[in-house]
Amino acid sequence: MTLDRLPQDRQLAKRLARDARAAAQATARLEQSYAKAVRRRARQELRARRALPVQVVLCVAAGVATVPVDGALAVFLGLVSGLQGARATGSVLVLRRPAPAAPALPPVVAVAPPPDRRSAAWPAVRRLEVVRVELVRLLPLVAPAGRDAATEAWAAAAEADAALRWQAARLAAVEPHRGAAAELLAPLFHGVGCQERLLAAVADLVAASADPLATTRLQDATDALHGIAMGLRELR
Fold first, then answer.
1. Binning pLDDT at 50, 70 and 90, where does residue 18 land?
2. Domain chopping of the chain, boundaries
3. Are the CB atoms for 185 and 121 separated by under 8 Å?
4. How many CA atoms, within 13 angstroms, populate the side-chain half-sphere of residue 90?
5. Are 84 and 62 in contact, with CB atoms under 8 Å apart?
6. How far apart are CA 62 and CA 165, in angstroms?
7. Exposed, middle or buried by CB within 10 Å (0-12, 13-18, 19+), for 217?
8. Rounded CA gap, 56 and 50, in Å?
9. What percent of the chain has pLDDT over 90?
């Protein structure tokens, strides 16, 4: 690593570590919220199970008791029966309510902890960051005719980016214990190379989009990007 890259790498490592901490905090908040919802649901079900038999008995008993009486007492017993019936219905609805759904994790949660800048996996993360930044810059410039391919490419790149960053984090974690094994690093850098080829295909698509008359070139660039995106998903 050259000396002129050290400040940039240090800044990038700090930012990625900050993103990873934010991801962990977001995950913790979602998990706490889900756990609270599950506990609240369990308490509601317990109360409903305990109350339902009593509510049904009172509803039926009050309804039967209205038969031999009349006047104000009949009205009162009818109200009691109706009230307990409504409560029993509410308890049944509580018991039939679906369980709380597991929270959908926001994109930030997919952020992996970055490897140490001295790790053999760090250059891969640096290259992935360059690809991510350039894709964000280029994809909005794709012409409408290539938007579907661009959307597919972005989804494939995002999935592969997350998987590769986690792979880099795992390799960096075991590196102090077993060293930087070439057979483990090779798939990581191969995946990074695929990401860079996808970026080059997006750049070709943007270049083709600059000429509205070059429909054949635009179609060729779209087909090439689609093929790379499909291949990137198969690598996962």
1. confident
2. 21-96, 112-235
3. yes
4. 11
5. yes
6. 67
7. middle
8. 11
9. 17
